Structure prediction request, 645 residues.
Amino acid sequence: MDVSSYLKIGHLKLIIFLLLLGINNLKKSFLSSDGSTQEVINVPSFSMESGQQIALSGISGSGKTTLLNLIAGILQADEGQIKLSGRSMSGTSESVRDRLRAQMVGYIFQTFNLLQGYTCLENVLLGMSFGDSFDKNRAVELLGHVGLTQRLDYYPRQLSSGQQQRVAVARALANSPKLVLADEPTGNLDPENAAESLSLIRQTCKEHRAALLLVSHDKAVLDQFEDVRDLSDINQGGGKVGAE
Amino acid sequence: MSLLQIVFRSLRQHLLSTLITSFSIALACGLLMSVWVVKEQARRNFTEVDSGFDGVFGAKGSKLQLVHNSIFHLEASPGNLTWEQYELIANDKRRVKTAVPIAVGDNYRGYRIVGVTKSLFEVEYQVGKKFEVQSGGYVFRSDKKQAVVGSFVAERLGMSIGDKFHPYHGLVFDEKEKHAEIYVVSGIMKPTNTPADRVIWIPIKGLQNMSGHSVETSSDVSAVLVKLQGNTHGMMMNQEYNFQGDVMTFAWPIAKIVAQLFNKIAPVEMVLSGVAVLVAFVAAGSILASIYNTMNQRRRDIAIFRALGARRRTVFSVLILEATGIATFGALAGFIVYFVIMSTASWYIRSETGIVLDPFEPQWVMVWAPLFMQCLGALAGVVPAAKAYGADVAENLIPNA
Ligand SMILES: Nc1ncnc2c1ncn2[C@@H]1O[C@H](COP(=O)(O)OP(=O)(O)O)[C@@H](O)[C@H]1O
Ligand SMILES: [Mg+2]
Prediction:
């Protein structure tokens, strides 16, 4: 093997290293209740670099959640490729996608989706239980980072919605993800909490070197981001039906 | 968090239904073990009891009734033998090693008074063990109105040495049937854990001559218990008395006759065991129902686990382990139920028959019944687990979807 091929491989690695998320010709359709198929997602190309923070805007029903679920491997794509750090999230078995999600993806939901039977600390611990690294100290640290050191043993119902969302943020970062997906994360919060929560999400992702892909239809949220894209520019799928 | 921690957490989250379901498993498992142990031990202990004798002579009739009456002190005597018949047996020294005549027909507060000769106290009722009186007492004198009281009777009636009592006529206690005689307790028997503990022993002459008993039959005996010189004699005497003669019945060997009784009630045992197994299935069904009922609540939790990277087979395992966990708790608590049932059952069986069951004796059922419950529990978990396995993640992540 000569020097040039070394260089080539090095170059390739560098691209893979920088390119966190790569989407090509991604398609997803659903069967409507009237029996017709509705193409919700048709994304010819989309990519993100490591550590990048992007906000996608889109009205309700435009396929934001569907796109995030495809990237997270929760939904299976009909066609196309999704690559996360060079590993394929599409065209693989479900258990491979589950594993990849456990290792690389953090997910923040509009409805928090905390487990009600588990304390804050346990919710965060669960965030790392299905991946590779289980580290209780890290969980405590993360909760400290979001200002909940005093609430480790509280159950979600004992917390305000703002606090619950902060637990969800800590949980999303528990598995040291390369990519955090946030689906209207401030939708259930009042404006004050929303602003605070949003900056916490952005800052926490930055500090833990995770890229952030946030989707929202809320202008106040979108305005916080330098890099805002309109989903309809990226997605040629025809999911633009819902009204706000 | 490990899988087991998640399972434990979930059981705690549904604590009430976990406890109720475990309780039904405990009842089922306890019942299963009790039925089996009573069955096994009763059969073994009853067939082991021969009070040290090989056979029993009595009036022509049922061998089983003869054994019941003379060895277990249950049921009425099938009839009498004359004193001459007894002497004929007793004098057959070539074949008969010991012959002990007994006479029944009286009771004291429902406990049988059995007339017997002192030779009873020379017989080993089990290898190396003879009937003995507790210190301070002595075996009745044949010519006195004295009584040796079985340990269970003494305990139940609070009798002690020197106590006086009137015998009552008949095998069933009736206030109006009081005999005029007064007997004095000369000794209390040491516990033997045999039917002898439930009997009051008096000299046979005393029972035969009790006021009101017919004078013509006053030398009759109810049965003659014998120890033979050897087994071959038993076979010969069986032939001689049961097939050729028609004056006496020779119940021999005692253990085999009792075993025949148990073979007769074997279908009853089978039904009982069958019911116990069915109860186990019903209890396993309650596991299925209790978990299945909470599936609506759980669906979201399952979707969240999946979103955090849990695989289908992981959530499947969680539910199977949960069902197994409930069955395990239940099976462990089943031992408490078992001991409660057994202490009642063994008390009852002892007071009715004198046979002592030991609930603490290790039995295989104590291993297989809990394992069986666990397997049923795991099986019951399959239905909800399959539901969890198939649950759609994206759909269930959205509340009220
Ligand atoms: N499982 C599904 N079956 C059928 N249609 C679906 C399904 N999931 C989403 N859709 C449809 O896809 C479109 C996009 O949904 P979604 O991604 O949830 O939009 P958004 O998150 O932007 O509001 C909607 O029209 C919705 O009705
Ligand atoms: Mg949505």
About this structure: The longest helix of chain A spans residues 191-207. The domain at 20-234 of chain A is CATH 3.40.50.300 (Rossmann fold).
